[in-house]
Amino acid sequence: MNETMPFPAISDKPALESGTILAPKFNRDGLVTAVVTDHEDGTLLMVAHMNDEALALTLESGIAHFFSRSRQRIWKKGETSGNLQTVEEIRVDCDQDAVWLKVSVAGHQAACHTGRKSCFYRRIEKNEAAGRFALVFDDDTPRFNPRDVYETR
Fold this sequence. Notes:
Layout: H1 13-18, E1 32-38, E2 44-50, H2 52-61, E3 65-68, E4 73-76, E5 85-92, E6 98-105, E7 122-127, E8 132-137, H3 146-150
């Protein structure tokens, strides 16, 4: 845990749900779910995870940091792409096992590594003729070419 911002553990459910102490309930892997939306228009941009260090860095710096489960390290969102997420507001859910970040996105104003504004650029629809569900793309054209941003660095 980050020594400059320790998060207490609160086992008293009423205190956790109705109190004023930030006491994130990290799961057995030491993570909380982080939902990220656009501060201006409310678009759901992404869902990621934070450990205590990522949450502390986010609170201290005002820039979104997450924990990459695949790379097993802290990741400053936008550090490579230039699409830094400045935190405008953070909320915590009732039992403090999820956080909601409302952010302003710099650079190309894209949150997804595919170059799109949102990671949620497809919806699930039933294909009646085929009798199965399929993914349908929204009209969210990529705002940058990921090869230009990620492969040249």
